[in-house]
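fyi for ur records
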Amino acid sequence: MNTESVSEPASGAPRRIIKRYSNRKLYDTQGSTYVTLLQIAQMIRDGEEVQIIDNASKEDKTDVTLALIISEELRTKPRAVPLSTLKALIRHGGE
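which gave:
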């Protein structure tokens, strides 16, 4: 179980907390609005620190959500991520 504390990142900028509900909806606590995976991807591209927390269990779901974002982007834009990068992720697993 990967449970990181909800705190500010080392950069000093506040971390944007996204709550993931059982119906798979994602709620941005800072913006007080529901967001999509692609909106979260844009937040990350804009340099924001994002953490996704399961609302019921309080478990950190950031890694799973980032994998879903990559999957979604590959669905909409084939070759959005170089094959060498995808293979390296698989080879290195949890390292």
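The CA atoms of residues 32 and 45 lie 20 Å apart. thats all i got for now
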